[in-house]
TrEMBL record, chain A:
GO terms for molecular function: pseudouridine synthase activity; RNA binding. It comes from Amphiprion ocellaris. CDD domains: PseudoU_synth_hTruB2_like. It comes from the Eukaryota. This is Pseudouridine synthase II N-terminal domain-containing protein. Residues 291-300 have a biased composition (Basic residues).
UniProtKB/TrEMBL annotation, chain B:
It comes from Amphiprion ocellaris. The gene is RCC1L. The keyword Repeat applies. It comes from the Eukaryota. Keywords: Repeat. RCC repeats lie at residues 52-112, 116-179, 180-235, 236-288, 289-341, 342-399, 400-449. One of its GO terms (molecular function) is rRNA binding. GO terms for biological process: positive regulation of mitochondrial translation. The lineage of its organism: Eukaryota, Metazoa, Chordata, Craniata, Vertebrata. Residues 53-318 form the RCC1-like domain. InterPro entries: Mitochondrial_GEF_domain, RCC1-like_dom, RCC1/BLIP-II, Reg_chr_condens. Pfam families: RCC1 (PF00415), WD40_RLD (PF25390). This is RCC1-like domain-containing protein.
Amino acid sequence: MATPAVRMFRRLEGLFCVYKPSGVHWKLVRDSIETNLLKVLNATPSQPLPQEVRFLAQPSTETEAPKGLTLSATSVPVLSKHPLVSGPEFQNIQVGVGHRLDAFSSGVLVLGVGNGNKTLNDLYRTRVTRDYTLEGEFGTATDDFTHTGGVVERSTYEHITQDKLERVLAMLEGANQKALLMYSNVDMRSQEAYEMAVQGLLGPEGKSAPILTGLRCIHFQPPNFILEVQCLNETQKYLRKVVHEIGLELRSTAVCKGIRRTRDGLFTLQDALTRHHWTAADITQAIRQYHSSKKHRKRSQSPAKKPALKTSEDVTATQQNEANEEAAVGKIKKLVAETRS
Amino acid sequence: MAFPFVRLCPRHVSTGLQVCSYATLSKASRPQEKSSAGPVFQYVGQNKKPTPKVFVWGFSFTGALGIPSFVVPDSGRKKPRKYQLTPYRLETAEQISSAACGYGFSLIASSTKDASKLWGMGLNKDSQLGFQRTQHSRHQSYDYVLEPSPVALPLVNPLQTRVLQVACGRAHSLVLTDREGVFSMGNNSYGQCGRRIVEDEVYSGSHIIHNIEGFAGRVVQVACGQDHSLFLTETGKVLACGWGADGQTGLGHHNISSSPVEVGGDLSGVEVQQISTYGDCSLAVSRDGQLFGWGNSEYRQLASVTEATQINSPRHLPLKGCGKVVQAACGGTQVAVLNDKGEVFVWGYGILGKGPNLSESSTPEVIPSTLFGRSQFNPSVAVTRIRCGLSHFAAVTDRGELFVWGKNVRGCLGIGKRDDQYFPWRVTVPGQVVDVACGVDHMVAMAKSLL
């Protein structure tokens, strides 16, 4: 028989995403969410204690001196099931983290609760791309590629124009497109390879080196610039290194001032919960939204579940994301100001 | 009595550094030092122009790559490099504006007014690179030129004339200048050099570089087939000379022609803007985007108008769905055209670029632009240049990327492996590719640096 806590937990199982602020380790985010959920789960009114019939010895009176043992049946609560004895119903819940974000970066962090962790595993195995916004600054090179690291070198950047930056980005994109083909395990001499290349489905399966499937500059004001990146199998350190290498290609130096993940698979900034919304109620609503959107997707598309499908979903997701990008960026600026205050 | 030693000048502790003996502050909490005293490096000034570069790759033993250390290694420990499978930088004295690859040799030219403006490397057994004086004897010429060596053109005004374009065939080459017409050198057994055929002429070690006469107007483009030559004048007329057994001269017969004669057929009255040939088939693109072809059609290159194996007079090729043709490129067995939207159409026989299943086609097949880098992030990538080698293709996009596909004869594709490539594949060239020249088993690319 399911207790109200278990029923609430069932409602909580699924995937949702939060906005991880920068400067915070992802584990702290996961721990605080787990704590919040546990608090609410254990605060659900517990069921009344079951009663059991115990044969208790009668208390002896002073006048009589009974020779035998008289037992009477009494209904007593089962103390072993008392919450003070057995402890809270939920000691810990399985909250899993999807693709990790290091302390310097911020953005969408996908978490899964309970059964949702199995879906997380599948997410890892299929080819899901992620979108990032990288803020860079020309003029300095540091040892950890961020603006807070130890300065290694400073250089001029007046010669950099948007046109030169576009050329360097085009070159990098060309190299990454080639890497996509090189890391795919298909035999290049087959017709299948040609068909997949035409549709853009060639790519690495499982682990591979980080590959940027899309790269462009969305804002350029020397010394600052903002890049939008779509990548596979990346780490945030690699993205900072990319910013550093862009600086080197432009015969100058560059550091990364901020990394924000704007999309992880199908979860975008719009769905991300900010710090004030890391409560069970908001999380339950987010998970409900996720389940309903999953049902909607299953109904609207063919039921063939292949990695190829995931990529086409990415494509539509990114198209939607691009359309919503401006709105999301504006919204996120507000939210970031909110979290900082 | 020992006094404790007191430091008279206390150690100055800068506000940024807080080093204590037990623990140091972590990097995250250490405030950033504003090192305003550090030097600022300037690597490049405001007016830096991109550096022009030349890259070569393919089969090196003929010397066609122009790198002598591949054939004759400079140090005893190195081994000769027979195939250069990825682009290798060729150091040149001047900026190279035009290059051409023949059958085992290459010519590179610069549009400068200096005395040396044309260099040749590779096979020279028919003096297709002119007379290359040996070190030991001034009467002997090298049979293999391993390094780009200047070709002495007999110019009337060597310090005023510029070389506009070079073209190379099987054993002859043509050089187009801006004021002095066309020069030809090499084998003339079929009249491909545009001069009278001399019986039993010995071409090796020959000094003859002939200035071709007989053009009504100024020549603006030259093209070399295997043993024939095509010339395009500024009025849009095409002239041809050389071997004609396959009708590739387009003069209406299958005989040899030893001086340039105007080509008729469907081309009379048409203003041609580009000619192309490399094997035994020839193509011409008119100014209004129509395509004309003549010559060998054994591989279905001209099958849209004829079932015969040769046409000896130009015929208009009706291409369905190609739009306005802007460039055409002719290979040994295959043909490619480029339309004004930047799309590439291929047909003929061989590896056409649409997978191993398509090995021949008599109608134009479009190559999907996603293979040239068109994607969501770059929806407007277009091909700007299309070139053909004997059995492979090369395409240059407007972003400066080079794509190759076809038979990988002795590593001529430059993709790092010797396998054939059945669909367009990016060649990693360090720079933006401006133009490319394709030969039988090697290629030359002219690029400029990114910055």
